[in-house]
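Let's sit down with a protein and look at its sequence and fold side by side. Which protein we use is up to you, so please pick one and set it down. Label the sequence line and the structure token line clearly, so we can match residues to local backbone shapes. Go ahead whenever you are ready, and we will take it from there:

***
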Amino acid sequence: MSQTIFITGTSSGIGEATAKHFQSKGWNVTATMRNTQNGEALSKLDNVLIEHLDVTDAKSIQTAFQSAIDQFGQIDVLLNNAGYGAYGPLESFGIERIRRQFDTNVIGLLMVTKAILPHMRANKSGTIVNISSIGGQMTFPLGTLYHGTKFAVEGLSEALHYELEAVGIKTKIIEPGMIATDFNGRSFDFANDPAIEDYQGIVSNFLSGFNNNSMQPSSPELVAEVIWNAVTDDTNTLRYRAGADAEMLLTNRKSYDDATFIGGLKQQMGL
């Protein structure tokens, strides 16, 4: 029987590329997204089920899971991919935007994971893959909210690794670097209040450095291949880096002390 992967956030980028990759390998795919009209391309593929799912809506999570089980009988892999990045001075964000960032990237991930665990426990098998980032191990300026969520994903995933391994479920973390997706478009929420003059220098330098980043971004397809390897390598490996920049930056982060690494990053970004 073909195995089934359930993916959140498949309307573009990593989620869409991963859905296509697993489908090409003969897997069943439940591709979920907030707006199912964005799933037209995926819907034309065999053994792909398109479902509405908003990670902040518990009812939509349960409905999508049940549809996947009704269609394919079993879910073998959960890929928690839905998320976005909020950047900017903390003082520029209202509480609703702060809550939205954590509700999507952390609470939503936990809700989706919690919903599928009874199914995987009953089968005594399964793999949960959480998309983190290099931003879950290191930070960039103005990323208080985004990095806060990704550090949380790293911590909760590592802790889940213990408790789920005991019931036959594997936990994996994927740490991409810069990816050629729409992260700086609809997946990027930037806030700035020009009236707070004290922050305008770092905002200007950050935006200039972000737009002129010399790193060559990796493709979503590269990340999809890393996810495939994580799911199929038959190991209990916890973390997987995706992209040459991820490999370089995370190696450097572990090699240098805080002052050296952060100082080098500040110099590179003109801060």
Remarks:
- The longest strand covers residues 170-176.
